[in-house]
Amino acid sequence: MTDRPGDEPEPDEDPDDFDEDLGVEPIVTVDISGLSIYTHHGVGDAEREVGQRLVFDISFELDRCDATVTDRVEDTIDYGDVCQQVALAAQERSYRTLERLCTRVADRMMERYGVDQVSVRAAKPEPPIALPVDEVAVAVHRERAD
Fold it and tell me: What CATH code is assigned to 25-143?
């Protein structure tokens, strides 16, 4: 391995030389953090009518990701599409609880991408609470039954 930035790899250290004979598929985790979407969710009517910004974090593992070998975008999850799907789920209807919203987003991720497990976190950075808080958040972890 090289020690200084800009050093060329040694001839036997080709970064594209991947040993496919290891017999172990790499585990690929897709994480999207800080996806900010304006929504209309909340317990009170005013909260649903006026709306507010929610911040989403989504994480899931891919059972198989051919892009680890092919380096082709088509062989992995399109992160932009994930963000669009979260936005659609968050904006297509109004929920009273973040628990229900996160579950709906998780279900959509599992259905669309065929993943076996997903975690979805939604935070309200400006919650309608009379006391000072940085945020309120709910996280839902969903796993497919065997």
Answer: 3.30.1130.10
